[in-house]
Design goal:
mainly alpha
Length: 183
């Protein structure tokens, strides 16, 4: 029953003529896979959307702040009825708002008719009353008058004129049109 092992050398396999194992080329980092392109594009899109939303929020907050400040000025005038203080407050608010709306222009140093011309040029509403009128001229002298000085002007018209400029949409104009030459 037990069969003798036939040739012991026959049980050892003969060396086959096989090639050695070939490994694939190492994976390089470039070109990146399409999934990574999608991730990069998504991140880029998220960053752009974030900055757009941040800009929109800042603009809306600026409008709310200006509207709130304007309402405070109008309420103070209703209580005190001091035209001098009203003109000073409106002049200061116009100056601050214009510097905020157009930060890259040289408007902080504008005075006199150059300042009023600048306000007329940047007023996007079609107001029939201009800053370069008797009403607007009050803004030139009011900040330099002593407190409680007597002034006689149409306060409602001045508030309306300033309100039209402050609450109108402002977009930065081309650099050449923003320059107001000093006379």
């Amino acid at each position: 029953m037990n069969e003798p092992a036939a040739n012991p050398e026959a049980s050892i396999p003969q060396a086959l003529d096989l090639r050695d194992i070939h490994l694939p080329e190492p994976i390089t980092w470039w070109p990146i896979a399409p999934g990574w392109w999608a991730v990069i594009a998504s991140l880029f899109l998220v960053v752009i959307v974030f900055f757009i939303i941040k800009k929109i929020h800042a603009n809306r907050q600026l409008k709310r702040d200006i509207k709130s400040e304007l309402e405070t000025i109008k309420q103070q005038f209703q209580q005190i009825q001091d035209q001098s203080q009203l003109a000073k407050s409106l002049s200061i608010l116009l100056r601050r708002a214009s510097i905020t709306y157009y930060p890259k222009t040289d408007i902080a140093g504008l005075t006199g008719n150059d300042w009023l011309a600048y306000l007329d040029k940047t007023n996007s509403t079609s107001s029939r009353v201009k800053f370069q009128s008797d009403i607007g001229n009050i803004l030139l002298s009011a900040p330099y008058l002593p407190d409680n000085s007597e002034m006689d002007f149409d306060a409602k018209a001045l508030v309306s004129l300033c309100e039209s400029w402050l609450l109108s949409p402002h977009k930065a104009l081309h650099k050449k049109t923003m320059r107001v030459q000093a006379s």
